[in-house]
Amino acid sequence: MGEKVKKIVKTIKVNLDECNGCRTCEMVCASFHAKPRYSNSNPNRSRIRVVIDERAGVWVPIRATDYTKAECDGRRTYTIKGREYSECSFCGTICPARDLFKEPDSGLPLKCDMCESDPALEEPMCVQACGLNCLTYEEEEVWVEAEEQVKPAEIELSLKSLVDKYGMGKLADIVARMSQKG
Amino acid sequence: MRYAETGYNLEVDLTTGNIERVETDPELVELHLGGHGTAARIIWERVPPEVKPFDPENLLIFSAGLLEGTSAPGANRTIINCISPVTNYLAHSMMGGYFGPELKMAGYDKIIFRGKSPKLIYLWIHNDKVEIRDASHLRGVGAQRTAEMIREELGDPRIQVASIGLAGENRVYTASIEHSHSSASRGPAPVMGDKNIKAIAVRGTKDVNVFNAEKLFEMSFNSLKSVAKNPNVGDWMAYTWDDSFHHDNFSWGNSRVRRKGYWSAELQERWKQLTKRLLNRKTGCYNCLKECKLSIQHPGQPAYGAKCFSKISWHMCSFDELDFSWEILAVAQEYGLDNFSTPQTIALAVELYDNGILTDEDMPDFPENSKERFYYLLEKIVRREGIGDILANGSYAAARQIGRGAEAYEHNTIKKFEQLPLKLGKVNFPYFLMFSTGEKINITQIQGSYPQDPLRNPEKRQKFCDGWVAAPERFKKFYMEWEPRTDPSMEASCHICDWNETMHYIDDAVGTCAFLSSFRGQFGGKPAYHIYNFPKYINAATGLNLDSDDVWQIARRNRNLVRAINVGRGMRRADEKPPEDHWKVRLPEQEQELLSMYYKFKGWTDDGIPTKPTLDKLDLGFVADELIRRGILTGEETNVYEETTTLPAPTDEQLEAALYSASEKVRMAQGGG
């Protein structure tokens, strides 16, 4: 068993029942991340978007999560109150399949960074602006396994066993090829 | 660089299909601010009185207010103007939602339509790309469904759509333009239908430049937090369980029957359970935390939006069970019918039938059940079939077309336009003026800055005044002198009417919602926007250095400009009267004395026409010249308004204290970035 270490996990909890679709979170997010700070309030530059489907009674704030070069190979569909939504509808991933969470001018991805700044905010701006308790911020201390320290002696031992099995020449070829691929 | 406004209007000639992006004159912002103000200026310059509402020369203008697209909370109203077929005066219509800010971000302050399209179209605006698209596949499609289809067709759920339903297509006068869960009534929808525009779809991704963004954001952010906590702004009547105020005080049927005591604990519980069952949630508009609309959904049907008045209008007009409103609203909104005038017009038709003026010949197979009668007439109206073709012209025109004494039953309009169904005791002076002389021709669009009643306890009255940051000093004096159960003095009444309308004119120019401002000053005295902080928002957004008196003056200019448009179209003193039986006790002599005093106060002639000295003083000399050229003024009239002052203004500390207490101060990250 490895050693346990303390880590702070930041979470924005979303209570979908409380969202009223005002998109104020979008406006303040865009403003906070504008350069210079607060120099524009364009929700198209926001890292949070409220997906609204009024006829279906759906209001869903989504934060931009990870960037990916490739879109999904196959997508699921979800049915909510009889209406079908693609997996993309409520996905926070910044991917080539749609222009959500991309700078409207450059197309560069916009990822939620929990409003990291110096001095630090007590809560991300979207949470501060949401007076409806739809967005709430939580910090949780969790204990996680410390990453194992690399022990060179153990690696050497493993390599020796591979040399014994396949020979030094073959192993060196493979390492060289792998390093060329990057 | 232009600040707050984009500096460009979109001009669409529907007859030729020509689309132009036209640069606007920056001076117009200094004169009129924007929104309703600049739209009125365009109508004045380009739509002479000879142009009739359904002429191709009538313009249809969609405006985003000056502060829209900025961080200013609740600046999201789309203002829609044209010459209204209901009144033949300037239509004053607005809707909330997201359309106005999206238009700004697409790079336009206004869309100006002229001419008529030869076929049904919709306009698609995507930043600089603007195209007229065929809408023949959308003919007869419901208004909200149209928005949904356009979004699917263009492949972007973030597109904002303003559309009309079958009612607008058929030029029903009580039709409305629908967008999101908001709608715009009072005239423009039938003009939109007449011009063959089914919808406007807009998607904008550009920045809106402002003069001092950091300052504007700081004010806006603190105001947002304050607004969320402030119980006196927003529309709590949209969702309060105790709705005795509306049900007991507004008249039922054809705005004739008071049912005081109708509301009971048992009824309220039933209402609550019913609404809870159908309610998705409360919803709001762009950049506003208040939840003034209800998303209602019957099982298996699309959701729709309801507001404080629409949730009661249908069942009160039909004397039916409470659930009738929830049921018929879904149908009426999809047809794109307003929920203010339409049920009142239908109730009038039912009353005419019950009194033998309309007969089975007019209404074959007319059902006996009230609910079925309403559906019967609704379907006839939207299709303009049979009697529906007459009723589609609204209560005033329909009563006159029907004749046979029907005019006597039509008793709730001012200048041909439907009013709130109120039945009160003795005439109320400020309200007499607001009802009679308001250019918006609807009382709810004028009142709201001054309380409707004085607090009985003088100490409480004083306390209210002490914290009343929104009020210029003279109104505190009037309020302190106002004894319960008496009228304010005639002088006070003129000022009160003037202030009420002024705040609405500012809202409508900058695009802020009345529920954060002009309509909510009467409660608590601390609306989010008022005459003292508007200049600060306008300065941070535009760089214009205005004080409260300057902003008041701009509102006065806009008010007089709209007045001149309507006077040019024939409006005179004789038209300025409230609905026939609005008050049980009328005071004809005092009313006329009051009207004369108000005209004098406004710098108008005794017939309610702005004089040349007044117009000159407002930089509207060209308007005076035109009125003289047309023989409406002689140019010899000397009456001129006296400027009122907003001084002494509260200090910044007092304003800040009114916005939020020290303990509630919002932390904002400074620097970094």
TrEMBL record, chain A:
Q: Which InterPro entries match?
A: 4Fe4S_Fe-S-bd (IPR017896)
Q: Which residues form the 4Fe-4S ferredoxin-type domain?
A: 10-41
The family database entries (PROSITE patterns) matched by this protein are listed as: 4FE4S_FER_2 (PS51379)
SUPFAM superfamilies according to UniProt: 4Fe-4S ferredoxins (SSF54862)
Highest rank taxon of the organism: Bacteria
Kindly provide the name given to this protein in its UniProt entry. (4Fe-4S)-binding protein
UniProtKB/TrEMBL annotation, chain B:
Parts of the chain that traverse the membrane: none
Cofactor(s) the protein requires to work: [4Fe-4S] cluster; tungstopterin
Record InterPro entries: Ald_Fedxn_OxRdtase_dom2, Ald_Fedxn_OxRdtase_dom3, Ald_Fedxn_OxRdtase_N, Ald_Fedxn_OxRdtase_N_sf, OxRdtase_Ald_Fedxn_C, Tungsten_al_ferr_oxy-like_C, W-dependent_AOR
**Residue limits of the Aldehyde ferredoxin oxidoreductase N-terminal domain?**
6-206
Q: Which Gene Ontology molecular function entries are recorded, alphabetically?
A: 4 iron, 4 sulfur cluster binding; electron transfer activity; metal ion binding; oxidoreductase activity, acting on the aldehyde or oxo group of donors, iron-sulfur protein as acceptor
Q: Which family does it belong to?
A: Belongs to the AOR/FOR family.
Task: Tell me the first and last residues of the signal peptide.
Answer: none
Which protein is depicted? Answer: Aldehyde dehydrogenase
The record, for PANTHER family, names: ALDEHYDE FERREDOXIN OXIDOREDUCTASE, TUNGSTEN-CONTAINING ALDEHYDE FERREDOXIN OXIDOREDUCTASE
- What keywords would UniProt list here? 4Fe-4S, Iron, Iron-sulfur, Metal-binding, Oxidoreductase
